[in-house]
TrEMBL record, chain A:
Localization annotation: Cell membrane
GO cellular component: plasma membrane
Protein name (Swiss-Prot/TrEMBL): Menaquinol:cytochrome c reductase cytochrome b subunit
GO function terms (MF aspect): electron transfer activity; metal ion binding; oxidoreductase activity
Keywords: Cell membrane, Electron transport, Heme, Iron, Membrane, Metal-binding, Transmembrane, Transmembrane helix, Transport
Task performed by this protein: Component of the menaquinol:cytochrome c reductase complex.
Topology with respect to the bilayer: Multi-pass membrane protein
From TrEMBL, chain B:
CDD domains: Rieske
Family: Belongs to the Rieske iron-sulfur protein family.
Domain Rieske, first and last residues per copy: 64-161
Pfam family, any one: Rieske
Summary of subunit composition and partner proteins: The main subunits of the menaquinol:cytochrome c complex are a Rieske-type iron-sulfur protein (QcrA), a cytochrome b (QcrB) and a cytochrome c (QcrC).
Gene3D superfamilies registered for this protein in UniProt: Rieske [2Fe-2S] iron-sulphur domain
Function comment: Component of the menaquinol:cytochrome c reductase complex. The Rieske protein is a high potential 2Fe-2S protein.
TM stretches of this protein: 12-31
The keyword Transmembrane is annotated on this UniProt entry: yes
Keywords: 2Fe-2S, Disulfide bond, Electron transport, Iron, Iron-sulfur, Membrane, Metal-binding, Oxidoreductase, Transmembrane, Transmembrane helix, Transport
UniProt protein name: Menaquinol:cytochrome c reductase iron-sulfur subunit
Alphabetized PANTHER family for the sequence: CYTOCHROME B-C1 COMPLEX SUBUNIT RIESKE, MITOCHONDRIAL (PTHR10134)
Molecular-function GO terms, alphabetical: 2 iron, 2 sulfur cluster binding; metal ion binding; monooxygenase activity; oxidoreductase activity, acting on paired donors, with incorporation or reduction of molecular oxygen
Length: 224, 170
């Protein structure tokens, strides 16, 4: 059945070459944990991506209940946590995943760093990776405010004050991020929500695409 | 490979295994989010409590009169007072009838004698739906069933209304 559906599509638009190009390629021996167990370090990038997928999926579902408004944000999260079946689990996935993704990202970065995999000709991908790291930190920072509890509020207070330490443009940066020079409130929450749910994920997808395309073009760096 | 039985090739075996494991992981990943997403569908529909609508039974006339009352509505994390509306009258058998003003076509609000050209009828301004006094939809207008009727009870001479239910009759 599935084969027939695949054949039907393939006959018309010839997707097999595209599929081959994306998924069907050899894994070199030195990155295959079945050959050398220590090669598991090559999994960290893929694991990071896997956790990112979890974050995207759980995040999409969370927006079914969450509302980015200072009156209702906390209440909607509380409702999700206490009244909705499996709501606690889905928010838990997003909450813990947010930390796990940073851990995986760091492990992946360490592997690339200590293996010198960032060296020519792969400097560009290292830079894209660093940008991805910043995007991830931004996602973590903006997502932290969304439950609108005390911890979230004061973490953002601190975060915005850190941004305010930037020479010359500090004050301007606070207003741009928080929506108001002094108040962390209605505009801050909607801004952080928009950044967390639309702007940064958009940047994330674009950078991930570049990251992966570069890997396919350049291949995995050779054995040490 | 001498026997005629269909052999599972190494490639097939790996394909099945990977698909199985991948499917298992995807299912595990999506189970909770999907359960959470369909939660509203699985909620039991609560029976409405009866509310005093502030109308004495003695004041109910043969003509439909609009009554409004407020109920506390709990919408997930948002509680609010919403206004309910009904048209109340006594029918020919002196029975109390409380009709929901919600048009059975697409849910606009009907009003009693809302159109000058149709006296003694409920009229819906959205698509010219009409109902007779007892709530029966008039043939040739959009509504397909009669106006819903509130369940009612009388306590201390006051009218209490509950939930509006569809009526079986045509």
């Amino acid at each position: 059945m599935l084969q027939k559906m695949y054949d039907w599509i393939d006959e018309r638009i010839d997707i097999t070459p595209i599929w081959r190009d994306i998924a069907d390629h050899e894994v070199p021996e030195h990155v295959n944990p079945a050959h050398h167990f220590s090669a598991f370090v090559y999994c960290f990038g893929g694991l990071t991506f896997f956790v990112v997928v979890i974050q995207i999926l759980s995040g999409m579902f969370l927006t079914m209940y969450y509302v980015p408004d200072i009156e209702n944000a906390w209440k909607s999260v509380y409702y999700l946590q206490t009244q909705v079946a499996h709501g606690q689990i889905v928010r838990g996935m997003h909450h813990w995943g947010a930390s796990v993704v940073i851990v995986m990202l760091l492990l992946h970065t360490l592997r690339v760093f200590f293996q010198g995999a960032y060296k020519k000709p792969r400097e560009l991908n290292w830079m894209v990776g660093v940008l991805l790291f910043f995007v991830m930190l931004g996602l973590g920072f903006t997502g932290y405010l969304l439950p609108w509890d005390n911890k979230a509020y004061f973490a953002t207070e601190v975060g915005l004050n850190i941004a305010g330490q930037v020479p010359l443009i500090g004050d301007w940066l606070i207003t741009l991020l928080g929506g108001h020079p002094e108040i962390i409130g209605a505009q801050t929450l909607t801004r952080f929500f928009a950044i967390h749910v639309f702007f940064l994920p958009g940047a994330l997808f674009a950078l991930l695409a570049v990251h992966f395309i570069l890997i396919r073009r350049q291949g995995i760096s050779g054995p040490l | 490979m001498s026997d005629k039985k269909k052999q599972v090739t190494r490639r097939q075996f790996l394909n099945y295994t990977l698909t199985g494991v991948g499917g298992f992981m995807a299912a595990g990943l999506l189970m909770s989010p999907l359960r959470m997403a369909i939660d509203p569908v699985l909620q039991p529909s609560g029976d409405g409590d009866y509310a005093n609508v502030g109308l004495a039974v003695d004041d109910i006339t043969k003509d439909p009169q609009p009554v409004e009352w407020e109920i506390e509505q709990v919408d997930a994390w948002y509680k609010s007072d919403v206004t309910q509306k009904a048209f109340v009258f006594k029918d020919d058998k002196d029975e109390i009838v409380a009709l929901s003003p919600k048009c059975t076509h697409l849910g606009c609000m009907v009003s009693w004698e809302g159109s000058e050209s149709h006296p003694d009828q409920f009229y819906c301004p959205c698509h010219d739906g009409r109902f007779t006094k007892d709530g029966t939809n008039i043939e040739g207008t959009p509504p397909t069933e009669p106006l819903h009727e509130y369940e009612h009870k009388v306590e201390d001479g006051m009218l209490f209304l509950g939930k509006a239910y569809p009526r079986g009759e045509a």
